[in-house]
Write a structure and sequence with these properties.
Elements (H helix, E strand, L loop, with lengths): L1 H13 L5 H8 L3 H11 L15 H11 L4 H7 L21 E3 H8 L6 H18 L5 E3 L13 H5 L4 E5 L4 H7 L8 E6 L6 H9 L5 E6 L12 H7 L8 E5 L12 H6 L5 E4 L7 H9 L7 E7 L1 H9 L7 E6 L5 H18 L5 E6 L3 H13 L5 E6 L8 H18 L6 E4 L7 H11 L5 E5 L7 H12 L3 E5 L4 H5 L5
Parallel strand pairs: 1-2, 2-3, 3-4, 4-5, 5-6, 6-7, 7-8, 8-9, 9-10, 10-11, 11-12, 12-13, 13-14
Helix pairs in contact: 1-3, 2-3, 9-10, 10-11, 13-14, 14-15, 15-16, 16-17, 17-18, 18-19
Length: about 500
């Protein structure tokens, strides 16, 4: 029975594997909980965003414990400062649970012991050698900021053969990737940060060597206006050869070099198995590429995130999908096309409720008209899985009075009360929507008995004392889960991204 309880606890705790705060609290309950949580917490101990690893001396204590005996003489000679207790036994063999290496974070932890580059590099070599021996299998590797020769150990080959996820940047010397080729051929998730203006042929060869690549991310982080050749072009051409296995394509174009999109035309037509399609900016796309997106059929598509995209493109993708879409993040590039916006936005709403019965997360653009609100209400009634809504308003060049804006806010809240699906838990909107104190209180009162609602907005009106009292009141009642206001565009969009 106790074994069954431990197994059940393990399954429950795995659901919190990215939530370090909860995992740390579980450690304190009792011995069984602690023993069950430790393997989950240490599977990828470098991944927690709420931990400042550069000041975590507790992690340095654990690292120094492991390498204390191996480098005792070295430490003495180099006067490296180790914390007290480094030579004492640990309660767990923590690194035997570890399946990941994050070079940048580990290096920042090791730097606590010494500020000298030579000392740090020597300790890094000792630690990586030990970690490679300890890891039963290596699943995740982040080699940004890597130094040459870091993983040239006899045991590295066997560990790297099990690698599933690799994160790197284009500044790493090509020879390093050539060294990975013989035994890193089953990477499933590859994330590349583009920080170098020159093509990286080693990364190209690494992509070509993969036999089961399912997830690919590319993020430009170049600020160079004098490029002679886009460094991503060869990478994307190599990627087209992986169409039979690739399910997730995520591209963040931020390269400033005067180029149109470097995506080969065939990349958009070959990847028919995509479940995730993300482009953060379609403005560099050629008309031929946009047309390919309009006619392309992605039957398995579940997540689509297209920013600065025309309604014609996103609507066609939705129409040609197989009815599996669960998440749509969309920022339109049509706001200046006044002649078509009204009908285009209506058509978008219709295509969503006609083709996306499973939709959970949705960005939607409304015009302040009765027809738009009628179609929006129809969407709410049909799409019963909807959990989160991001609402933007584009009423062309019409200028509403404050009274008119408050009236539309009232209509919006009444529509939600009448027709919002039971799963709806979050609403995000900009200051195009304003709610009077009376209308907001009426909405919250009618929302009682449903799941607590989170509201995120860019409007500063809610800084008023009366609004604060109202919000606090309904937070105490459990009607409001979170209410965040005065947010910028990035803050409203970011947690909604995929």
């Amino acid at each position: 029975m106790s074994k069954l309880n431990e197994d059940i606890l393990f399954l429950i705790f795995k659901e919190f594997q990215e939530d370090s705060i909860s995992l740390f609290s579980f450690l304190m309950v009792n011995r069984l909980w602690c023993e069950t949580v430790i393997p989950i917490l240490w599977r990828n101990p470098w991944c927690y965003n709420d931990i400042n690893y550069s000041i975590k001396s507790s992690l340095f204590i654990i690292i120094s414990h492991y390498i204390f005996n191996d480098i005792k003489e070295f430490i003495t000679n180099q006067t490296i400062q180790l914390p007290s207790g480094s030579n004492q036994s640990l309660l767990f063999d923590y690194f035997s649970y570890c399946k990941s290496i994050n070079v940048n974070i580990i290096n920042s932890i090791i730097s606590i012991g010494s500020h000298l580059d030579y000392n740090q590099f020597s300790m890094q070599q000792k630690f990586y050698s030990l970690l490679i021996r300890k890891c039963p299998e290596l699943k995740y590797l982040d080699i940004r900021s890597i130094k040459p020769q870091t993983f040239y150990f006899p045991e590295a080959k066997d560990r790297l053969e099990s690698l599933c996820e690799l994160k790197c940047d284009t500044s790493i010397d090509s020879s390093y990737f050539y060294g990975l080729l013989p035994f890193c051929q089953y990477i499933q998730k590859l994330i590349i940060i583009n920080i170098d203006s020159k093509p990286n042929h080693g990364i190209v060869k690494l992509i070509e060597a993969q036999k089961n690549l399912k997830h690919f991310e590319w993020e430009d982080d170049i600020r160079n206006s004098h490029l002679t050749k886009d460094p991503s072009e060869e990478v994307f051409r190599a990627l087209t050869k992986k169409a039979d296995s690739l399910n997730h394509l995520i591209i963040y174009f931020r390269c400033i070099g005067g180029f149109e999109s470097a995506l080969p035309q065939e990349i958009l037509s070959k990847f028919y198995k995509l479940k995730t399609l993300v482009f953060d900016d379609l403005r560099p796309f050629t008309e031929e590429q946009l047309e390919q997106l309009r006619i392309q059929v992605y039957r398995d598509l579940e997540i689509v995130n297209l920013e600065w995209c025309g309604f014609d493109v996103i609507t066609k993708i939705i129409e040609n999908s197989g009815g599996c879409i669960k998440k749509i993040l969309f920022r339109d590039n049509n706001k200046f096309r006044c002649l078509t916006f009204y009908e285009d936005s209506l058509n978008f709403i219709r295509k969503v409720y006609e083709n996306c019965p499973l939709i959970e997360y949705l960005t939607i653009t409304l015009s302040l008209s009765k027809k738009h609100f009628d179609e929006f209400e129809k969407l709410l009634k049909i799409c019963q899985n909807l959990k989160s809504l991001l609402i933007t308003i584009d009423n062309l060049y019409a200028i509403e009075t404050d009274k008119e804006i408050l009236e539309y806010g009232k209509i919006f809240l009444e529509t939600l009360n009448r027709s919002a699906p039971i799963n709806l838990q979050e609403i995000r909107f900009y200051d195009d929507f304003k709610f009077s104190l009376e209308n907001l209180e009426e909405f919250l009162e009618k929302w009682r008995g449903r799941s607590a609602i989170s509201i995120l907005t860019s409007d500063s009106i809610y800084e008023g004392e009366n609004y604060k009292k109202l919000i606090n009141k309904y937070q105490r009642y459990g009607v409001i889960k979170d209410f965040e206001h005065n947010l910028n565009d990035y803050e409203i969009h970011y947690p909604f991204k995929f």
